[in-house]
Amino acid sequence: MTTVKSSNLGYPRLGEHREWKKLLESYWKGDVTEKEFHATSKEIRLTNLKKQIDAGIDIVPVADNSNYDHVLDTSVAFNIVPTRFGSYTKKLTLDQYYDIARGNKDNVAADMTKWFNINYHYTVPEFDNTQPRLLENRWLKYWQEAKNELGVNGKPVIVGPVTLIKLGKLHGDYVSTEKDIDILLDSILPLYQQVFKELQDAGVDWVQLDEPSLVKVAHEEEVKPYRRAVEALRAAAPKLNIELQTYFDAIDPYQSVVNLPVQAVGLDFVNGNGENLRHIREFGFPKEKILAAGVIDGHNVWTADLSKKLQLVTELQGISSELWIQPSNTLLHVPITTKYETAAAPELLGGLAFADEKLPEIVTLTQTLNGDDTRVSFTENAAALKALNESKARNNVTVQTAIKNLDQSHVERHSTYAERSKLQQAQLHLPKLPTTTIGSFPQSTEVRAKRAAWRKGHLTDDQYDAFIKLETTRWIKLQEDLGLDVLVHGEFERTDMVEYFGQKLDGFYATQNGWVQSYGSRGVRPPVIFGDVDYIEPITVAASTYAQSQTEKPVKGMLTAPLTIINWSFVRNDIKRADVQNQIALALRQEVINLEKAGINIIQVDEPALREGLPLKKRNWQNYLDEAVYSFKITTTGVRDETQIHTHMCYSDFEDIISTISDLDADVISIETSRSHGEIISAFEAVDYDKQIGLGVYDIHSPRIPTVEEIADNIRRGLKVIDDKQFWVNPDCGLKTRNEEQTLSALANLEKARNTVLTEL
Ligand code: GLN
Ligand code: ZN
């Protein structure tokens, strides 16, 4: 008989009431002492652990907690710190740690970037000039704490050495060559060995070695450093059991990876298009090893279909000698509990499973395989799913028919760009090098205070509306005074470019307490797309037409595109993602048409998250990009030739997706490039980009005011390769995080720079 156990890979840090976030922020403000900080952190850690034990999880993770970010914890434990912060010989103080995480008066913070393909951001390790040494065995410390306080032999979770190296930078670039990986392994492997030996000697049974970078490995050759690492760790601590954990996708060099010398291999059976399962069916699984099967979705919020999952784990049980049932990845990336979602309709609530609702799913599957009577759980589960699937929200015939009837006419403008652009110019009369901004203006303290007051009911709808109008009028006037050519309404009514649309479309649920950590103490509450997405009524038309009524200059309408909405939401998984995307697109298409009808001649549809949603494996890119183009075109092609469609992208390097950008067939794209001007321009040249382009000519992320000369130089550089008839002048992103003074000074310089360059043409 195969032994079956339940296991977890990590638990959310924030706390049910965001206690952890509040603790960090109070400490930063000086409202709690370091001693209080540590005492409360410990309470939070133990509460989280106790919940997992009480739920019946056999193998619980420890040391998955953090004071900011687990990658940073791993780096600083080994003295891998950016050189500007010096080098350490003993454990960093809490303040030294936060200096690196958040920056201080002398130094900017360490770089932060996206963790694989999800919305968590880690602190980038920098491997220059440090003397790696073990400053603290934090894994042992938290294992001991769990043992002493709760009597549990927990499973320390540690970011594996190869993943740590590949996520890090050497001399400013991400580490990628075999040689660099080897050199860095030489210096950090002995430290990992020491950690593992100490864990073994203390009596630790299992350690979870996270090597998610394995899912990006395409060739056998690249498995070498992972083999070298686990061999070294085994040699240093032969009695310590290693669970080599992968997640977020399937493993390509399957046989090499499952045959690495470890006692358990953790595979993701939720993501990766079923490839891990196909490999197991074809090649089997090593007899002497434990299969740690990630079967419960660790980064979505839906109740699992237990009978389907049971089929899967039953099959896996037959293949391995010992089976662990676990989530596909740490539960860090889902909210904690659905128990505060009191506003959710019962059929939705029954279909939602956050971290605390996923634990019992894991336990139920384990118990079932172990022969317990779990029929009640299965009956309840089936009823909950049935209620959600049969709900009105998931059976909107109009929307479903519209999706079925999509055809070429929904994704084509009437005329080519060359023809449209003439008609647009005849209507708009824009000067050469037109100036504009990306959409949002400062969300000042006053704007935020009024919104909060309105939400609490201290302001009536009319009062709030009047305030927003006042602010819009004021900024229309400011934009006119600056001399900008295409104006925006300023987005004062929006907190967030996704949440706002979620609130106005059918099929979305805004959680009350569904917080997940985005980075550091920052939490986000992604909307939940649970039903068919439908257009209820105009969303932005009133704001845009009001702004247009205040000026003779063209006002640009402002929407968020489907991919960005979907990438920043929790998305239903009972239908294809592309269908959800297209439902959103069809709803927005109506909004675009309504804006046009209301006299808005320029409409910008923002797609900043298109690039970041790219699948982890390159071979899946094309399909993703084709679907992205399709939904963008559904959104934007319902208009007359005279209407000018803009789009905007930011946050990333675009070289990989330039031809996709061109395929979107937007008349104008504005793009964040102020930090990487040269490369992007030549990339556009390479695809013969014939439409218009606004290159961000200064970096809005910094409070620094760019000089006229600097901006002019950026424009001149762009004009070397892009025709002046195609070129727009704009900041590189929205201005909502800047203050009024910074915004006005920077835009005044932008205008002057444009005017200077115009005289040179
Ligand atoms: N229109 C949005 C804004 O200006 C775009 C935001 C973004 O690109 N992230 O705020
Ligand atoms: Zn942007």
From TrEMBL:
Its cofactor is Zn(2+). It catalyses: 5-methyltetrahydropteroyltri-L-glutamate + L-homocysteine = tetrahydropteroyltri-L-glutamate + L-methionine. The active site is at H701. Keywords: Amino-acid biosynthesis, Metal-binding, Methionine biosynthesis, Methyltransferase, Repeat, Transferase, Zinc. GO terms for molecular function: 5-methyltetrahydropteroyltriglutamate-homocysteine S-methyltransferase activity; zinc ion binding. 5-methyltetrahydropteroyltri-L-glutamate binds at R18, E19, W20, K21, K114, N119, W568, E612. Gene3D superfamilies: 3.20.20.210. The keyword Zinc applies. Pfam families: Meth_synt_1, Meth_synt_2. Binds 2 Zn(2+) ions per subunit. Binds 1 zinc ion per subunit. Pathway: Amino-acid biosynthesis; L-methionine biosynthesis via de novo pathway; L-methionine from L-homocysteine (MetE route): step 1/1. Residues 6-318 form the Cobalamin-independent methionine synthase MetE N-terminal domain. L-methionine binds at I438, G439, S440, E491, D606. Zn(2+) binds at H648, C650, E672, C733. Its EC number is 2.1.1.14. GO terms for biological process: methionine biosynthetic process; methylation. L-homocysteine binds at I438, G439, S440, E491, D606. Zn(2+) 1 binds at H648, C650, D663, E672, C733. InterPro entries: Cbl-indep_Met_Synth_N, Cobalamin-indep_Met_synthase, Met_Synth_C/arc, UROD/MetE-like_sf. Residues 433-753 form the Cobalamin-independent methionine synthase MetE C-terminal/archaeal domain. The keyword Metal-binding applies. Belongs to the vitamin-B12 independent methionine synthase family. Catalyzes the transfer of a methyl group from 5-methyltetrahydrofolate to homocysteine resulting in methionine formation. NCBIfam families: met_syn_B12ind, PRK05222.1. This is 5-methyltetrahydropteroyltriglutamate--homocysteine methyltransferase.
